[in-house]
Each structure stands twice: as C-alpha cells, then as structure tokens.
Amino acid sequence: MDDLVSLCKRRGFIFQSGEIYGGMQGMYDYGPLGVELKNNLKQAWWNAMVYENDNIEGLDAAILTNPTILKYSGHEDTFTDPMVDCKSCNQRFRLDQVPEHCKKEDLTEPRQFNLMFKTNVGPIEDGSSFGYLRPETAQSIFTNFKNVVDSSSKSLPFGIAQIGKAFRNEITPRNFIFRVREFEQMELEFFVEPGSDEDWHKKWVQKRLDWWEDQGIPMKSIELYDVPDDELAHYSKGTIDVMYKFPHGLEELEGIANRTDFDLGSHTKNQDELNISANVVENKSSNTRLAIQNIETKEWVVPYVIEPSAGVDRGVLAIMNEAYNVETLGEGKERTVLKLMPHLSPVKAAVIPLKKNNEELVKIASDLKSKLQKLNLGRIILENTGNIGKGYRRHDEIGTPLCITIDFDSIEDNTATLRDRDTMSQERMEIDKIPEYLIKVVNGL
Ligand code: GAP
Q: Per-residue confidence at 18, pLDDT binned at 50, 70, 90?
C-alpha cells in the first residue's frame, strides 16, 4: 500500500485533500492522471451497463436530498454504525475497528451513530430547512422510477444506472481511498418481475465478475461473500459481496443486493392497493404510484430490484494494485510498471521526438499527436524532453501502453519506433498506420 500511495502522489494520481492545511481525514483529490483513470473506469462501466443494454437507461440526479426520501428509505432510522469511545486514549472507533492497544474495560457501551451528513438548505439556519448529502445514489433512482418509465416506455425487466458522489460520515476512515467520507458509486437498479428476482440476482453476480475481469482484476484475487441474514442491510433479502484482496486485506469491492420491492414499496402512494411483500412503513406523503402495469393481466406490480453497487474509488485502488509491478531487468536494474488495461490508462500514447526542440522532428511528432488525439481514445502526450530513457520510465510508471519515438529516419522514410509497455519490445511502423494500430491497442483488439 505504501508503494502505491507514494506512486499516486509522485506521479499525480491521488493527493490528500487540502494537504497544504494539513489535510482532512477521509477525503482525497484526484490529480491529472487520477482523473483520467477514474473517468476511464466510469466510462467502461457506463458502456457495459447503458450502451450495451437497450433495457438500461442512465440518470444523473441531485446529491442534496430531501429528508423525506431518506425517512421512507429507512436511512434516518437505520443507517448507523455502532460507535465506542476509549477512555484511555480518548479516541472514538467503530465497534468492529477498535485497535488492539485499547483495553476492553476502557471502552464505553456502544451507541448508534448515523452516518448521513446534514446541511442547511436556504438562507435560514434554524434547522427547519435541511437536506442530506445522499449516502447512496440509489434512492434518486427509486424516486425517479415513474419519470423514467413514462419517458422511455420501459417494460420489465429494465434498469436505471447512475454514477455519482455519495457521502458517509465514517467513524474511522482508513486505508487510503478504501474507506473515505466522500466517494463515488456506480449503481444499477434493475427492476424485475417478483419471482424472477433470484435468477436475475445470480445473473448479475456473474455479469459483474466478468466486468471486473475485463478491467484487469483476475478471479484469483476475488472471493464472493454470501452475506448472512444478521449482517444484511435493512432493505435486503440477500446480498453477495464481491470481495477483493486489497493490500490491507480481503474487503468489499462491490455489493450485489436483492432489494425486493422494499424501496418502491416504501416510496409509493396507495400502498394498500399494491401487493407489497416487504415490510414497509405507511407512506402518506408520496404523490406517485411506483408500480408498473402488466400489459396482459392489467395488474399493477411493484417490481423487485436487483442492485449491483460498486465503489469507483475502491475500483481504482484494486485496479492500480493489480497493475503495479516492479520488474528486475538484470545488472541490478529494475523498473516500476503499471500494467493497466489500455482502455483504462490515463495516457494512451506518448509521442517522443528523439532530439528536444529539433524543428523537423517536433513537427512530425506534433502532427502525429494531433492526429492521434482526434481519434478520441483519451489523452495523447507530446513528450518534448529529449530523454527517451526517462520518457520510457515515466510512461511505464503511469501505465501508458505505447511510446512512439520520432527519429532522424522518420524524416526520410515516414516511419517511427513503437515501444510496447509490457514487453518493452520495439518495432518500426509507417507513421500513417499508427492511428489504426493505436485504436486496436486501446480497445484490446
Ligand atoms: N446502494 C447500496 C449501497 O450503497 P454499500 O455496500 O453500502 O451499498 C456500495 O455501498 C459500494 O460503495 C461498496 O461496495 C463500496 O465499494 C462503496 N463504498 C461504500 N462505502 C464507502 C466508503 N466509505 N468509502 C469508499 N467506498 C465506499
């Protein structure tokens, strides 16, 4: 973990937030390369969910949330962690995360601590008008259910996908970007006929494992955890956690829950006219029926929901951890290389003129850079430093799949040297063929 954290800072992936004032616990900022990696990961999820499935639509809802939503969702009452104080070291811990140096007899009785952040909304600060920063993106998918169904004419099964920030006032944020107070989620709420939910649950677990593998996480680093009943969230009938071997231990990367008809059933009006199976509290505030009509039977059905919910930040950490390699090169030399899947790499290619500021070489290199940039594959960098060795080392460390060197032969025969990040092998290629080649590299073709 220390090596990864140091690489992240040195190369501009991730910084402690507000570091110049001593930082703030549980908050991180993504730097120039981190933002590219994170955006690429989110785009890969969006492609796999929304673009590859005609029955899944996207959403981008507000973060500030009306408290009524989080009252009926159950979060006001149950979104809590047990907390204890240590009377010896005067620190506060989540009950399951008390460090070994605290003695049992020094701990207070556990009390429930609500993890939601509350904030004033509007100019009056008397507490009468407040909102929550959403603790999960899911709730706005449920409250927009009818809007999406009506505007996109969906029938079951179908899904609504959302990527966005979520906030939790974690008692003990820790392990770099693993447990933080501000993070991003990629969530799908997939609505299905009651009775077909268990089959869909299994299908989504497999689809999500396949997707993580496509992002460079091998299945040997993953274990599935079938969450026991006494650990299930208040809305869940069954949850499979995708556990990843993080540098600090085996922990949750994504949860795939069967949320039954709990959420739509909690937020709908006319609850007693609908055959809701979950145990929901009476809702007298909702003005909308969150159900769908079966075309044949004309019966109104509250769909069941299967929810794959992944953390973007935990995804970034897992992917970087897998990609991070230190290789020995002989003669006591070694190189650090980030073997990212090329579609995730922050920089797709570096174009390097052999001699710094040489007019002819730089012209060929910058023309090629512009051409490659226009392919919209992601960032292409013109590396006008004149130090090829240093360029290769930097681009190995940040995971750039391809370095392209323009030398004096390029002026004569319009070719360049391509150097592969993983094998370090070099080949000569006509410059005109490089765009097509790069498309193949980035798309893994
Ligand atoms: N809507 C369901 C839900 O929010 P969750 O298991 O509480 O379920 C889903 O969260 C995912 O969000 C987790 O698997 C994890 O990847 C990520 N996550 C949750 N809390 C986090 C935190 N404090 N820091 C970073 N990621 C977090």
A: very high
